[in-house]
Design goal:
Strand order of the largest sheet: 2-1-3-5-4-6
Oligomer: single chain
Radius of gyration: 17 Å
Distance between the termini: 29 Å
Strand content: 5-15%
Largest sheet: 6 strands, mixed
Shape: globular
Length: 235
């Protein structure tokens, strides 16, 4: 497949979903994926390890930390990369009954930068200190991490990608020494032999810890809409 690298995925109503690891999908995941194809009414771009290269910009290759990340953190990085370079929609592989055309229209017909569902109180990244307190107080101003639509190449997506890649720059030496061992690896989790994992990234460090503060900064330029998938029985 040849992907035009000037593609505007908001304009083409393209919806991305990702499966970056080598493990097989569970039956629940496969059923959820089918609802995305069946119900959203979008051109669905399903990226996996065999199709990913088609979407990588020659002038902006994936970060050198990519091969060392867990499958979960690869998905965290990749949704950021895609939203900056292509825009359009993203959804986790979770069951959805929503038709996305009206959501794409809402964003395309506005001057806003992104659209997403209102974050849940327990969905806010566990950031410490005054910033975390502000985010938890203002959770209703945030959008969630699991489904959204972005314009490409905006100050919001540029800041998101820059902060993400700056973090990976800092973590790269440790990631090379201690790459992910399994798809859900994270700092300190107990491995099968009882040792804490030396993998250097916390669970929310590459996505929520960056995404929620940025969304809070840009909250006046974001639309909230009920685009969320179901959050039950997806593993």
């Amino acid at each position: 497949m040849t992907v035009p690298h000037d593609l505007d995925a908001l304009e083409s109503r393209t919806l991305f979903c990702l499966w970056t690891g080598y493990e097989e999908m569970s039956d629940d995941r496969l059923r959820a994926l089918w609802t995305i194809f069946r119900n959203t009414g979008c051109a669905v771009a399903f990226l996996n390890r065999n199709t990913l290269d088609d979407w990588v910009k020659p002038e902006h290759p994936l970060h050198p930390a990519w091969p060392h990340l867990s499958a979960t953190h690869k998905a965290d990085y990749l949704r950021c990369y895609l939203m900056h370079h292509y825009g359009g929609g993203y959804t986790d592989i979770k069951t959805t009954s929503k038709t996305w055309g009206t959501f794409f229209d809402q964003l395309a017909q506005s001057d806003k930068l992104a659209l997403g569902y209102q974050e849940l109180p327990n969905g806010v990244a566990p950031i410490e200190g005054p910033l975390g307190d502000d985010l938890r107080r203002d959770y209703a101003d945030l959008i969630g991490l699991c489904a959204f639509i972005f314009r490409k190449g905006t100050p919001l997506t540029a800041a998101w990608l820059q902060r993400t890649e700056t973090l990976l720059d800092r973590k790269l030496p440790e990631l090379r020494r201690h790459p992910a061992i399994h798809p859900l690896d994270r700092q300190g989790i107990l491995l099968p032999d009882g040792r804490p994992s030396p993998y250097p990234l916390k669970w929310t460090e590459l996505l929520g810890d960056i995404f929620h503060p940025l969304v809070h900064e840009f909250r006046d330029q974001i639309i909230q809409a009920p685009i969320q998938p179901a959050f039950a029985r997806y593993r």
